[in-house]
Specification:
Helix 1 packs across helix 3 and helix 7 crosses helix 8. About 1% of the residues have low confidence. This protein is 30% helix and 24% strand. The longest helix has 23 residues. Strands 1, 11, 14, 15, 16, 17, 18 and 19 form an eight-stranded mixed β-sheet that branches. An eight-stranded parallel β-barrel has the order 2-3-4-5-6-8-9-10, surrounded by six helices. Strands 12-13 form a two-stranded antiparallel ribbon.
C-alpha cells in the first residue's frame, strides 16, 4: 500500500457504546457524519453507527444525505446546515429532516411538501448564543406554532448548538449554562402553548464530556465518536467538577490511522538539502526515506520540519518541505529501515500491524496542535485520493 487510512469500525462502535454508557439508555444518539464522517467515510460509518444502536445521522449538505440514501441507509438523517431553496425537492425525495431557522424557509418547505402530498418532519433550530443558524430565542414559539399549524410540516424536534461546551474555562462553562437556560426556557414556552417540541437536543462532544444538563432527549457528539476528547473532565473548575462527579472520565480511541510506506531510500551527504526551498540541510551524512504522501493527501504542509513518522516502532523526523504528493524522512546514517516499510503518520498508542510494538504514540490531535488546528481539520483533510481501508 502506498498511502492509506485505516478506519477501525469496531473502535468506532466501542466509542458509541462508551457514550451510550455515559448518557444512559433513555437518551438517543445522533451521529454527525457530515464531511464524509469527518473524513472517515460516511456510508461505512453510518452503517456501523446504526449497528451500534445510534438513532439517527447528521449531515451538513443535502447531497451528503442523498448519498446515504443511495447507499441504503434508512435511519433518520438530520440536515444541520441551511439548505438552498433549490435543494428542497431533494430534501423531500430523500426524506431528509432539515433544521428550520426562519419562516421563509419553513413556508418554502411546506409548499413543496404540500405539492408532494407528504408530511415532512423538521426540527426547529433555536439560536441561543452561537449566532450562526437558528431563530432568535424570542421568536422560537411563533416559529414552532407556524410549523405546527402548517399543512405539511411536522415539528419532530427542537434543537440548539453550543459554542463553547468543549472549554473548561469558568466563563465558558457559565456561557454554556446561559445557552442551556435560554434553550430550556424557549422549549418550555413551546410546551406551555400546547405544542409538542418533538425530540429536544443540544449536546455536541464537549457537552457529552462536561455538561450532563445538556443531554436532554438526544446527544450529537461528533469528534468524540471519532476518538478525540477536546476537553478533559479534570480541567474543569472544582465547583463544576462537583456537579459532574458522578461521571467517570470518558475514554475513547482514535478511529483513523494514516499511514504510508517508504517508497525510495537514498544516501545524503552532509551539507546537502532536501526538497523545495532547500528548507532542511543534513548536518551529517545520513539516509533519506521518501514517502508518497503530501499535502494533497492531507498531511499539512505546515508540518514540514515539525512532525515525525513511526517506522518499525521508531520515530523519524520529517525533513524539508512537505510537497503536494511526497515528503522526506531522515532515517539516520545506519538505518535498518527498508524500502516499502510502513510509516505511520498518525494513529494511536497501539499499532497492531507494526512488526515491533511501539512505545511511541502520536495521534491526529497532536499533529493538529503542531500545526495550530484541531483534530477535526486533520481527519477531514485526508483527501479522496487516500484509500480508506475498513477493519473491524
Ligand atoms: C458538527 C456538529 C455537531 C458535532 O460537533 P462535535 O464538536 O464534533 O461533537 C453537533 N451538532 C451540530 C449541529 C453540528 O453541526
Amino acid at each position: 500500500m502506498r498511502t492509506g487510512a485505516i478506519i477501525r469500525l469496531n473502535r468506532f462502535k466501542e466509542n458509541i457504546n462508551t457514550v451510550k454508557t455515559r448518557v444512559g439508555k433513555d437518551i438517543q444518539i445522533c451521529v454527525p457524519v457530515k464531511a464524509d464522517a469527518y473524513g472517515h467515510g460516511a456510508l461505512q460509518i453510518s452503517k456501523a453507527a446504526i449497528e451500534a444502536g445510534a438513532y439517527c445521522l447528521g449531515v451538513a449538505d443535502v447531497t451528503e444525505g442523498v448519498e446515504l440514501r443511495k447507499g441504503g441507509i434508512q435511519a433518520p438523517i438530520l440536515l444541520f446546515s441551511q439548505a438552498h431553496p433549490s435543494e428542497i425537492p431533494l430534501i423531500i425525495k430523500a426524506k431528509i429532516i432539515p433544521f428550520i431557522s426562519d419562516e421563509e424557509f419553513a413556508a418554502s418547505l411546506n409548499k413543496q411538501a404540500e405539492t408532494e402530498k407528504i408530511k415532512l418532519p423538521v426540527h426547529l433550530k433555536i439560536d441561543t448564543g452561537m449566532n450562526r443558524m437558528g431563530c432568535p430565542v424570542n421568536e422560537a414559539l411563533a416559529l414552532a406554532a407556524m410549523i405546527k399549524n402548517s399543512s405539511s410540516l411536522e415539528l419532530a424536534g427542537t434543537v440548539t448548538h453550543l459554542s463553547v461546551s468543549d472549554s473548561a474555562n469558568k466563563s465558558d462553562i457559565d456561557f454554556t449554562n446561559t445557552q442551556l437556560a435560554r434553550f430550556k426556557k424557549a422549549v418550555s414556552a413551546i410546551k406551555n402553548a400546547g405544542i409538542n417540541p418533538g425530540i429536544v437536543h443540544a449536546a455536541n462532544s464537549g457537552a457529552v464530556i462536561l455538561h450532563p444538563n445538556a443531554w436532554l432527549d438526544m446527544v450529537r457528539p461528533g469528534i468524540l465518536l471519532y476518538g478525540f476528547k477536546t476537553v478533559q473532565e479534570y480541567e474543569a473548575p472544582v465547583e463544576h467538577l462537583k456537579k459532574i462527579s458522578k461521571l467517570s472520565s470518558i475514554i475513547v480511541k482514535p478511529v483513523m490511522e494514516l499511514k504510508s510506506a517508504v517508497s525510495l531510500i537514498k544516501k545524503l551527504n552532509k551539507g546537502e538539502a532536501v526538497s523545495y526551498g532547500r528548507a532542511w540541510t543534513a548536518k551529517k551524512d545520513t539516509t533519506i526515506g521518501i514517502l508518497s504522501i503530501g499535502y494533497a493527501d492531507g498531511l499539512p504542509r505546515l508540518a514540514s520540519n515539525r512532525w515525525q513518522v513511526i517506522i518499525n516502532g521508531e520515530a523519524f523526523p520529517l525533513v524539508g518541505r512537505i510537497t503536494m504528493d511526497q515528503c522526506c524522512v531522515d532515517l539516520g546514517a545506519n538505518t535498518s529501515v527498508k524500502r516499502w516499510d510502513e510509516a505511520i503518520i498518525f494513529g494511536d498508542d497501539i499499532y497492531p500491524e507494526q512488526p515491533k510494538k511501539s512505545a511511541i504514540t502520536q495521534n491526529a490531535a497532536e499533529l493538529a496542535s503542531v500545526v495550530r488546528t484541531i483534530p477535526y481539520e486533520i481527519t477531514c483533510n485526508v483527501s479522496k485520493r487516500v484509500k480508506r481501508i475498513y477493519k473491524l
